[in-house]
Amino acid sequence: MDFQARLAALTQLLRPWAPLWSRSILQGWPESGAAWPEDWLAHARSLDEAGERQLDHGVLVGAPPPSLVALLGTLQELTALPWHEGVHALTVSETQGLSAKKTHELERVLALLAPRTRFIHQAVDIGGGMGHLARLCARTFGWTFHSIDRDGALQDKGQRWLTKSRSSGAGTLSFIQASVEDGLQPRIDPLFSGGDRATIGLHTCGPLALTQIRKSQGAGFVLNVGCCYDKLEAPRDFPVSRFGGAHPLPFTPHALALTTRGRHHKTDVEFARMKQVYAWRFAFHLLSRQRFPELGFVRAGDAPRALYAGRFAAYARDRLERLGLEPGMTDSALESFEVSVRAETRDLLLCHLLRDRFARALEVVLLLDRAILLEELGFQVELLQLFDPRLSPRNLALVASRGA
Q1: Which of 3.40.50.150, 3.40.720.10, 3.40.50.620, 3.40.50.300 is the CATH number of 100-246+368-401?
Q2: Which helix (H) or strand (E) holds 218?
Q3: Could you tell me which of 48, 16, 9, 40 has the C-alpha nearest to residue 352?
Q4: Which pLDDT tens digit goes with each residue over 351-376?
Q5: Which of 17, 199, 305, 365 has its CA 20 to 30 A from that of 210?
Q6: Residue ranges per domain, the chain?
Q7: What percent of the chain has pLDDT over 70?
Q8: CB 62 within 8 A of CB 372
Q9: Worst-scoring range by mean pLDDT, 263-272, 297-306, 329-338?
């Protein structure tokens, strides 16, 4: 794949729409709603429940505006990435105590590593936890493996499990309690350098993925799966490549948070729950704006799930009490208010469903920039879909090698 051409095309496509994806809809309401093309909103308003569900999947039904059809079609084309095919099946004993998600990820990571790492003899896993990946790699490939994690309690559990299981990889696996950070770390830095060394980071949170790449400049192989892009900071963490610097986008904190929403595989139950959570949060925002305009944007915060499943008055009372606010309204008045703003809260929902169409593209932009950085460092790079997004939504893997 020509990463530079793909990044240039995506940034060129996304830049004119930045007012829609770089700002918070709720915090800027109602002006943020007015920024959306009227024909897009009119089409969204025409959708029934099934149509809303399809829009959440990125599928347009009915007679959508040509501009929306063209945009979503091009976004889909530019975010299409190859899949890694293959599974390294694990035995029942190897997966004992692992979740279905963890098992799924490990089976695909091992299958990806096998044909690409024949020249590797040592490896380091960042955020290795109990060392499941390290244990399996040591056993499968015969590597000397160092599992790094700052949580010593997790590592103690892993060490006890390893001893108890009498794994054949026990002699080639070691646990190191440490945080992987930018800057010199004489204790662990040598583990990241050497043509026969691999560095692995699965779901490295926020800027930790970039730290892994920087420390791995002298490694022979790098595998990284990022997550928690909302913990990044721009421009510190984007763009990071020289080419990306010539094709910037306005990655605000709101835009970075949006990159984590690129999930098009919600079940019917998950979608219905999302709609209910949004309905109460949006109605509460309109209530607080009406009753307490001097406070500006009021953060409702996450409420217990049971409150979203109940009546709006119970949810609103709980949030108001937490914030130390008294609206001077009865429960009946709170319920009536929620009914009165339903058309507006639905518009808020529809704007969010439309805005979510940009999420995957923004995530891919971040990873293309990282792929280009790895190329600038001399690696041969792949950007692959590795995990089933229904199990592991952050499923994009950067694979970089210097060859044998």
Answers
A1: 3.40.50.150
A2: none
A3: 40
A4: 999 999 999 999 999 999 999 999 99
A5: 17
A6: 3-80+260-358, 100-246+368-401
A7: 97
A8: no
A9: 263-272
